[in-house]
Structure formats: structure tokens, C-alpha cells
Design brief:
4 strands; 12% helix; alpha+beta; single chain; globular
Length: 68
Amino acid sequence: MPTRAKQVPTIKVGELRRWLDGYPNDFDLSFGGLEFYRIKTRGENIAMVEFNQPVYLDEEGLVVVHNI
């Protein structure tokens, strides 16, 4: 995987919870065609949402998705 040239965007867990507040627990959540895999802790205070498709920023900061 290429080295990331730019800072990867993040969102605070609390902000995501606020965005989801009011949606019932049985609502489906779409990721725009990506298939959710898991959420994994990647540091002391960062977790990464992972998908079955590799997703990363290229050297120019553009998002790259590979369907495998």
C-alpha cells in the first residue's frame, strides 16, 4: 500500500453518535457501496472503520478503492 502523503480525515466518536442520534437501532447504515468489515483500535485513542475493500489515500491525497 502506498505511503500516505496527507493526513487521513477523522471524526470524533461523539460527533458520529450525534449524527446517528434519533435513528432507530434497526435502521440500515449504508457506506456508499463499501462492505463493512469491522472497527479496530489502531492507537491509544484512534479506531479505524475497516471495509472488505482496501481503501486508502494515494500520494496526491485522492481516495483509492480496490474491489477484490
